[in-house]
Specification:
The chain is α+β, with helices and mostly antiparallel strands. The chain has helices at 18-31, 119-127, 136-143, 145-154, 167-172, 174-184, 211-219, 267-271, 287-303, 337-344, 349-361, and strands spanning 5-12, 37-44, 50-52, 76-78, 87-91, 97-102, 105-108, 162-166, 189-193, 203-205, 224-229, 234-241, 250-259, 277-280, 309-317, 320-327. It folds into three domains: 5-131, Rossmann fold (3-Layer(aba) Sandwich), CATH 3.40.50.20; 141-159 and 232-361, 2-Layer Sandwich (D-amino Acid Aminotransferase, Chain A, domain 1); 162-229, Dna Ligase, domain 1 (2-Layer Sandwich).
Length: 363
């Protein structure tokens, strides 16, 4: 036991992607190499309480009829008081305090705001705990679609045309917002919260008369919204892993999302097994197309200063690749696209977990 690396697995959270994070935790709990790692499962309730969770993968199975969640069990996990200690403690439901021992690394498999956006990363930096994935700045950039696009555009990487609208701007002059968007963008457009993932709050707008309803849906998730021109092209994605010891990042083979009977790759299709979507991995690309896509993925990863892992999503159009977005903590269930692409590239799911922990512990 003493020779094992102690991993605090952090999941759940306050975002609308709470259940997806829990499902990811279930996948990691089931697959992580127990001969090498001791796991401390820490759940974050929807209200933001840190609780000591059960080390039970089956508890967090993604069941569309009963989505998994972190329930407040009365425990409270306490982070180190300073960067001089890595010891975690827990207060149980009766008020008794005990040590959970020292943690070597934190694996924050959190999606969306208050987890994937630099907030948890900032907490871990403050207390001096190493962690898997991107740092504060890259996490914040990757979570915010407006600033991701701004940085990628500055780096010479093609992105879809867009306009960003605040809740205040929309409330003050919706007709003006619509007029500006209509003059700059070609229908259809997608209306997206700036800082949400898993297609939560996203609507496809085919006529400008639909914009008001779409803005209402998106503004329920965030106070800034993107109106983004729809791109006609194949939807392809690949995973990126940071290189070891300063080596260049590596990109996986590509996966493709093939729409058969849905408007777009929405939450239900991603996670609830809704029909109308086929996931193909590896995607059928020429050697030159794959090489270009992998090069662009690595450039995008570097442009936002990413570390650890990311999934980069593209549209492949007749004129080339357009980056849709970067996910700094992509869906990580065993059937999600990020691990699927790396498995098709030669890694197993436990090996991907091991690689991410190894990268986090590099000095």
């Amino acid at each position: 036991m003493a020779n094992k690396t102690v991993v605090a697995l952090l999941f759940g959270g306050r975002s609308s992607e709470h259940s997806i994070s829990c499902a990811t935790a279930g996948g990691v709990l089931k697959a992580i190499d127990r001969s090498r790692y001791e796991v401390v499962p820490i759940g974050i309730t929807r209200d933001g309480a840190f609780v000591l969770e059960d080390d039970d993968a089956s508890k967090f199975t993604l069941d569309p009829a009963n989505l998994p969640s972190v329930v407040d069990n009365g425990t409270r996990v306490h982070w180190p008081e300073s960067a001089l200690s890595r010891e975690l403690t827990v207060t149980d439901a009766r008020g008794a305090v005990r040590s959970l021992g020292a943690v070597d690394v934190v694996f924050p498999i959190l999606h969306g705001p208050y987890g994937e956006d630099g907030t948890i990363q900032g907490l871990l930096e403050l207390v001096g705990l190493p962690y898997v994935g991107a740092g504060v700045l890259a996490s914040a950039l990757g979570m915010d679609k407006h600033f991701t696009k701004t940085v990628l555009q500055q780096a010479g990487i093609e992105v879809a045309p867009w306009r960003t609208v605040t809740a205040r701007e929309w409330a003050a002059a919706p007709a003006e917002v619509e007029a500006v968007a209509a003059a700059a963008l070609t229908l259809p457009v997608f209306v997206k919260p700036a800082r949400a993932g898993s297609s939560v709050g996203v609507s496809k707008v085919k006529q400008w008369s639909e914009l008001c309803a779409a803005m209402t849906v998106a503004l329920a998730e965030d106070n800034r919204v993107l109106i983004e021109e729809g791109i006609v092209g194949r939807e392809v994605e690949c995973g990126v892993l940071q290189g070891r010891a300063g080596a260049a990042p590596r990109a996986s083979v590509a996966g493709e999302i093939v729409m058969t009977a849905r408007e777009f790759y929405d939450f239900e299709a991603k996670y609830l097994d809704a029909p109308g979507i086929d996931l193909v991995c590896p995607a059928v690309l020429t050697a030159d197309e794959l090489a270009e896509m992998q090069s662009l993925a690595v450039r995008a990863f570097a442009a936002i200063g990413c570390e650890g892992l990311a999934r980069v999503d593209f549209f492949l159009t007749p004129s080339g690749f357009v980056v849709n977005e970067i996910n700094t903590m992509p869906g990580f269930t065993p059937i999600s696209m990020f691990p699927t692409c790396w498995i098709a590239s030669g890694l197993t799911y436990p090996e991907i977990i091991d690689e991410l922990i190894t990268l986090a512990l590099e000095v």
